[in-house]
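Troubleshooting log. The previous structure file for this entry was overwritten by mistake, so regenerating from the original sequence record. Sequence copied from the archived sheet and checked twice against the printout by T.R.
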Amino acid sequence: MPELPEVETVRRGLEPAMLGETLLRVEQNRPDLRFPLPDHFAARLTGRRVEALSRRAKYLIADLDDGQALIMHLGMSGRFVVEAPGTPPVEPGAYYNEIGRHLIHDHVVFHMGSGARITYNDVRRFGFMDILPRSELETCRHFAGMGIEPLGNELSGETLARLFAGKFAPLKAALLDQRLVAGLGNIYVCEALFRAGLHPEAEAGSIATATGRPRPAAHALAQIIREVLEEAIRSGGSTLRDFAHADGSLGYFQHRFRVYDRQGQPCVAPGCGSLVKRLVQSGRSTFYCESCQPRAPRR
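Regenerated output below.
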């Protein structure tokens, strides 16, 4: 599944083609994706102008000029392809576990006033789209109860300590809980925990005092989460292959993985010498270095 940096990369790639442009025509090639598309989906979008394009966790949100918002989620394999007159197609955002594009899976096509064509392709159809009033987004079924934005101002050592205080769940599980921190995924949680020197199975509450105050590890983890995500966004996300973004830059973040998918390889920390290990937590692979990430004692 594309993670937050990949979704942000997609947003930035779509913005030049969508922002301020009118949806002249919308092709809907099937009635549903993961869920049924809204009633009169194409008709409700046709003629609308995109006034803003934002991201919330792993969702893309296009604000329309009639007060509605088009909500888009990429699911496991969703991708957009932008084709502008006189330029080669651009696919903003490619993912570590890449799945090839097949034209039969071009499910929604937006024809923009500029002449650009934006195609949503989804092999597995786990993505979805919805249209809701912009004023109701925070309380709608998609965002109600969603945790803090990891690139927003709320993320801090104090906030992590408050959210995790008293929790016996593994630290990795708490970071992946979208009700606490929204948008973090398996790849970047593994990377952040390694850089912070925290064991993925340590109790989440271990980064807070008994009174809920942040320990030094909470401050370090908050800063490192932000750094890892921003670094990945600058690199264009965790691409399996090199690819050109809309601005011509290339994505190379997978070459910077320090533990993710490196089981059995030497730890990259200077002087470490240990091998990266793998364990399974809640059905997901976790990669870590037991020397650099010692298991915290139980409280």
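The chain has a mean pLDDT of 89. Archived copy saved in two places this time.
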